[in-house]
Design goal:
The complex is a heterodimer of chains A (550) and B (227). By secondary structure, chain A is mostly helical. Chain A contains 25 helices and 5 strands. A 5-stranded mixed sheet of chain A has the order 2-1-3-5-4, with helices on both faces. In chain A, a hairpin with a 2-residue loop joins strand 4 and strand 5. Helix content of chain B is 10%, strand content 27%. Chain B contains 1 helix and 10 strands; from the N terminus they run αββββββββββ. The chains are: A mainly alpha (550), B mainly beta (227).
Chain lengths: 550, 227
């Protein structure tokens, strides 16, 4: 692929990624998890407080990396921050991941990078969760960087690549505990790559992969001198011989320093890093226990391949899965070579298979957990498409493949549009999981309306009595209200009194029914499908807001 | 220019401050605001994704016995039904009185978004003693602005009696009501029309907590012949 053509495709991918990820970011009500993260950010933003909690909330990178965005957008108050501004952080990392694919150019060449960039830009799963204020998109970004820097190091060892891979590894760890799964998969894939592909005679890359050399393919090789130097490195040793202990130590030190700084709240909480290690016990137990989120091993693959919820539309990212399979076959069938660039395909296939197997084997599954291994699929798909086009010598067949690809890409784009703008909170969208219902926003609107008729305004006392699974994202939406209290049950409150506004779960509403009936008007709102909240408004407060004026 | 702006700004600021003070609740001499320390929300992980119907606990209490005059009969079965939306999105208008009360797909009729009604013609005037409504009971949801009216006038212009109204803020424009909202369950919502004489029963709703559509699985009207 010529440079100009590549630049055109890559820019188109970036533009598509930006449009799909940044448009109408407020279209969906805040998810329970997003609101949790937002409030954590709020404490950091308003009071400079962050303390790692090993029992929940993953790593701190999301909060610290959001801080500059949040400060710029809100001036230091969580109430000044909108859902769209908050989600623009993860959306930016989603777009950034497409940009990071440029680092793979010397490893897989222009064609696969361009194809991967377009698939990453349009993948409904990747797009949908880039618009979600949770850790996953950051984890994918750092994983892409880590893999690229690791292999750039193996491609051309040096202090810079070693340090960069360490920093990105540290950021992965400081993002989410599941980074450990990708580290293990990467280590195992690296060992497999070395042991299976070791000792093979070096060959020109085109011969190694069964490809014919093309004059326009330089794959990042700058001069015959560089080529010789590289081949000499490859011939003289396998992968481990390329690793220098001082480089390895530097990478480890960089990873440890970055993650220590973040987990310790920039040295304010010395136990933070230790807690992060202890958290593995918590997550190990949670991953295996039968809870809300237990799904069969094929859950992720089935959802990505073909899914339909009730009478909703069909959803499929089969194009990416099929191309990834082609990429796998091509990588495993390629004749071995000791050159790192030729080995990358093998590594990528092994890494993706191991990572997918590990995530699938864990009973605890949520749709966004698929993203780290799905990045491997997308890179492999780029590889697979390039291999298919190269293997196909008949121009007409190549044209057919390209035509099919065009239709497939259009289909992916339409699905992304549908997922984000038509079905952003609709349970018929397979990526919608425990999502807050749009009806919930009517509850928020009602409270705002009532408060606007009171002299205290947002200083109105609001008591919330509902279990912890039934309050979120209320704290986010009531963040501008200064007097809101949360209790998990009526018994916990003691004397409820007669607050102007009381919000309860449906269960608590039944318990409190007799006491509330005479002085409160009650309305139901859907928090999530099948979960209702009840808004009780004291009669005088209701009258002030809604009684017709005489 | 700067001086002029500043001069204009000062009185504006002072006025704003005074207004803010005036708007605040009055404070009696010798008293101070009680600073309440309210509990913060508890952070917790991803909640359950409810994708199957009827997973939530039933929150309502079982309905007790309901007494009607001897000889009260079901009047609405297979009686003609009309609606504000005669082209339902799902199902048929006739489902409202077909006697099928299952919560599964294929047993409910779905009408368009916003305020909609269905109207049952009992074919003669009766004294009504019970109206039982099932909007949709496969999921815990609440229908908004449920208003039930009865009349002997098919156009509901004259002699209209409202027997149930939970439109608290009169958003449907039929008058504000004080009846309670309720969660749909398999046992339906029982309304007591207190023996009012009528031939037509009109049931309004205005979307629900899950979406803006209006649904009916079944409506039953019980009564005795008019005296």
């Amino acid at each position: 692929m010529k440079k100009g053509v590549f630049a055109g495709f890559f820019l188109a991918a970036l533009l598509a990624a930006a449009v799909l990820r940044l448009t109408q970011l407020g279209a969906r009500p805040m998810h329970h998890d997003e609101a949790n993260q937002a409030l954590k950010l709020g404490a950091l933003l308003e009071h400079g407080e962050y303390r790692y909690d090993k029992n929940d909330h993953h790593g701190p990178s999301l909060y610290y990396l959001s801080l500059p965005f949040a400060l710029a957008a809100s001036g230091g108050a969580l109430a000044g921050l909108s859902e769209a501004e908050l989600r623009s952080v993860t959306a930016a990392f989603g777009i950034g991941t497409v940009l990071l694919l440029l680092l793979f150019l010397p490893l897989i060449g222009r064609g696969p990078v361009a194809a991967s960039a377009i698939l990453l830009a349009l993948s409904p799963a990747m797009v949908y969760f880039s618009r979600f204020y949770i850790q996953e998109t950051l984890l994918v970004f750092f994983l892409a960087g880590f893999l690229a820097f690791l292999w750039r190091y193996l491609h051309r060892p040096g202090w810079g690549w070693a340090a960069a891979s360490g920093v990105f590894a540290g950021l992965m760890y400081a993002t989410k505990e599941t980074a450990a799964i990708s580290f293990a998969a990467a280590a195992a894939a690296l060992l497999l790559t070395f042991f299976i592909r070791r000792g093979q005679p070096d060959r020109p890359e085109s011969a190694a992969t069964g490809e014919h050399p093309r004059p326009d393919e330089n794959r990042g090789e700058k001069s015959p001198r560089d080529q010789k130097k590289k081949e000499a490195l490859g011939k003289s040793s396998g992968l481990p011989a390329r690793l220098r202990w001082d480089h390895l130590l530097l990478a480890l030190a960089a990873a440890a320093a970055v993650s220590f700084l973040l987990f310790s709240s920039f040295l304010k909480n010395s136990n933070g890093f230790k807690e992060s290690i202890l958290s593995f016990k918590v997550y190990f137990i949670r991953a295996g226990e039968a809870g809300f989120h237990v799904h069969p091993w094929f859950y992720y693959l089935q959802t990505l391949f073909l899914s339909r919820v009730k009478s909703g539309p069909l959803w499929s990212e089969a194009l990416i899965l099929v191309l990834a399979l082609a990429g796998c076959v091509s990588a495993f069938r390629a004749r071995p070579s000791s050159r790192p660039s030729a080995r990358f395909g093998f590594f990528l296939a092994a890494f993706t298979i191991l990572n997918t197997a590990a995530y699938s084997a864990i009973p605890y599954k949520t749709p966004w957990n698929a993203l780290p291994f799905y990045l491997g699929f997308i890179l492999l798909a780029g590889f697979g498409l390039d291999s298919a086009l190269r293997a196909c010598r008949v121009p007409f067949l190549r044209l057919l493949i390209l035509l099919g690809l065009g239709i497939g890409l259009l289909h992916l784009g339409i699905q992304s549009f549908r997922a984000c703008f038509r079905y952003p909170a609709d349970p018929r969208n397979p990526h919608v999981y425990a999502q807050t219902s749009p009806d919930f926003l009517k509850l928020v609107k009602r409270i705002e309306e009532i408060a606007s008729h009171q002299p205290e305004g947002r200083g109105l006392l609001i008591k919330v009595i509902a279990g912890p699974y039934e309050i979120w994202p209320l704290p986010w939406y009531l963040r501008a209200f200064s007097r809101v209290g949360y209790w998990t049950s009526a018994a916990e409150v003691g004397e409820i009194g007669r607050p102007p506004i009381l919000i309860t779960s449906a269960e608590e509403a039944v318990r409190l029914e007799d006491g509330l009936n005479t002085v409160y008007r009650s309305e139901y709102y859907e928090l999530r499908p099948g979960v209702l909240l009840v808004l009780h408004v004291r009669d005088d407060i209701w009258e002030a807001a809604f009684a017709p004026e005489d | 220019m700067k001086k002029v702006s500043f001069r204009l700004l000062l009185p504006a600021l002072a006025a704003a401050l005074l207004t803010a003070r005036a708007a605040a609740p009055s404070q009696e001499p010798g008293k101070e605001e009680l600073k309440l320390v309210l509990p913060k929300p508890m952070f917790i992980g991803t909640p359950r994704n409810i994708s199957s119907p009827n997973l939530e606990k039933i929150t309502g209490k079982p309905r007790g016995p309901f007494y009607v005059p001897a000889g009260t009969k079901l009047l609405s079965l297979h009686k003609p039904v009309t609606a504000s939306d005669m082209q339902p999105v799902i199902g048929e208008v006739s489902y409202v009185t077909d006697g099928e009360k299952s919560g599964e797909d294929g047993y409910f009729v779905e009408f368009g978004p916003g305020k909609q009604y269905v109207q049952i013609d009992l074919k003669a005037a009766y004294e009504l003693h019970a109206i039982l409504i099932w909007h949709y009971h496969s999921q815990a949801r609440v229908y908004r602005d449920v208003v039930v009216q009865v009349s002997e006038d098919k156009d509901f212009i004259a002699g209209v009696t409202t027997v149930f109204n939970n439109d608290h803020d009169n958003s449907s424009g039929l008058g504000a009501g004080r009846d309670k909202e309720y969660i749909e369950t398999a046992e339906g919502r029982l309304i007591d029309p207190r023996g009012v004489r009528a031939r037509y029963v009109r049931l309004w709703s205005n979307g629900n907590t899950s979406n803006d559509m209006n649904h009916y699985v079944e409506v039953e009207v019980y009564g005795t012949p008019a005296k």
